[in-house]
Amino acid sequence: MATKLASTETDFDVVIIGAGISGIGAAHYLATQRPTTSYAILEGRADIGGTWNLFKYPGIRSDSDMPSFCFGFRPWTHKKSIADADIILDYLNATIDQNGIAGHIRFDTKVSSAEFDSETGRWSIHAVNSSTGESTVYTARFIYSGTGYYNYEAGYTPEFAGLDTFGGQVVHPQHWPEDLDYSGKKVVVIGSGATAVTVVPAMASTAAHVTMLQRSPSYVLALPAEDAIANTLNKLVGPQRAHAIIRRKNIAINRGLFKACERMPSVMRRLLIAGVRRRLPKGFDVDTHFTPNYAPWDQRLCMVPNGDLFTAISSGRASVVTDHIEAFTETGIALKSGQHLDADIVVTATGLNLLPLGGIDLRVDGSPVDIADTVAYKAMMLSGVPNFVFAFGYTNLAWTLKVELVCAHLIRLLDHMDAHGHAVVTPMLPASGVERTPMIEMSSGYVQRKIATFPKAGSTGPWTVKMAYEDDIARLKHGPVADPALRFTSRSASYVTAS
């Protein structure tokens, strides 16, 4: 756990919002590449880690391989490639200790709003202490938002008929009671996504029986929990040398899988389903329970380490039912097919609520910023919003790979501004020629419910949002900082230039 230090300082060069993996990464790059730049991390909760600290449900783990998901500057040395949340938290805490970041974190500090003043070229950031209710205004030249993309306060649960008649316990994974005892209980897990396929095998080892109830199937891919090549390389050449090789290997495999799904969806569909069929007992109804009605990667693939979901099903401790809910009853769930599922506990693994930029109210010179009306510049800044950078990772690859490219570009942007005497930078959307599209183009229910509230992607130039690592390396790591789409303002504010 990061050491909590009190501080009364409120004025910084950069304020980072969120002490999850995105915020910690930004702090490292500022501390190591711009050591004279002052910064603070404002974290609304009582500890670091974001997702990995918030979720407590059984089996919570990464859904990307950790050599890709970890930081490029700090190798992943644990033998598990698909890692549990507590191992990831240990890694993040060690990163904080290594870089002296702890003293820069303000815990229990929830940001509610931020306003940019063009005359001073600075942000005023309003935050409330979660414990005392005390309000504090922080000021900064730049804001870096590492808030992720979903609502930390509440997950998504549909309205179920008869829910109030159910005599058992209903639990959403985002609000898991740490003292929940499910040993010897009959459990129904509603859902078929990444959370459901994680919870089911984890609970099956203790519960009397676990049923995964889904309206429709998802693609499920079994991967080794440990990467034998990575573990061997770590021993032979050491973690520092091995890290770059392992990461390149894993990125190539993951990008290759995604591109194959894009170019040959029918072939990949058959291969993915055949992989499931090989892991389940002969005669299992794979066509009903593991054959989705969409193409691979229209939604994220669900990864299961060592095929643990299939092992739980094969052992008889877990089962899958594909049906629609008619209503909850006193003893379980009645399905539209007429079947009834008895349950002592129902887990609603029904998804997340997306929330752009942590729900923070942004204003520029007194005017509110409608986030949904902005367009993302290089998928890291907002049109018309000065000195503001946000981290938004990949949906088809490890999140952190994109975050680190954003951090690298932020450093280059700050260096460029200092070298040319600029105080303010604002992405300016052209009056015409850029069509708006959704920032995430996935058919997942959690995306479709809220994506309209997010910034838009543009159809051309730096306004496109590319879920392609190789393209982002070119434009964020190696591409020029100066851009006709950026308006730079000098400290004297007497002229505007794009040099």
TrEMBL record:
Pfam families per record: FMO-like (PF00743)
GO molecular function: oxidoreductase activity
Keyword Transcription among record annotations: no
EC number(s) stated in the UniProt entry for this protein: 1.14.13.-
Coiled-coil intervals, chain numbering: none
Record keywords: FAD, Flavoprotein, Monooxygenase, Oxidoreductase
InterPro entries associated with the record: FAD-binding_MO (IPR051820), FAD/NAD-bd_sf (IPR036188), Flavin_mOase-like (IPR020946)
Enzyme class: oxidoreductase
SUPFAM superfamilies in the cross-refs: FAD/NAD(P)-binding domain
UniProt keyword Flavoprotein, yes or no: yes
Reported cofactor(s): FAD
Family: Belongs to the FAD-binding monooxygenase family.
Protein's UniProt name: NAD(P)/FAD-dependent oxidoreductase
Species this protein is from: [Mycobacterium] vasticus
